[in-house]
């Protein structure tokens, strides 16, 4: 999966938000604009090619206020599905917030 391909879905307005994602975003005070900013300016840090029902990935980026954000998104080739978004924890990620702790 390539970040440029995912960014094109926003340009084509072919983005679907899962109900799980919208619920979690509300709980975490994350706006759709923050998720969009993360994907348009971020990078893929983990790839999940065998995810069901579609391949997905973890994207590292930031909100418009420059707060680090992670977004899990997948695609069926026709749409980009936003699965969840969260602020990464230093308990689960290294200082770079890109590498999972072992």
Describe the structure.
With 102 residues, the protein is of the alpha+beta class. The protein has one domain. The chain contains 3 helices and 5 strands, in the order αβααββββ. Strands 1-5-4-3-2 form a 5-stranded mixed beta sheet. A hairpin with a 5-residue loop joins β3 and β4 (68-75). The radius of gyration is 13 Å and the shape is globular. The two termini are 24 Å apart.
Key attributes of the depicted protein:
28% helix, alpha+beta, 3 helices, 5-stranded mixed beta sheet, 102 residues
Précis, in short:
The protein is built from three helices and five strands; from the N terminus they run αβααββββ. The chain is of the alpha+beta class and 102 residues long. Strand 4 and strand 5 form a beta hairpin.
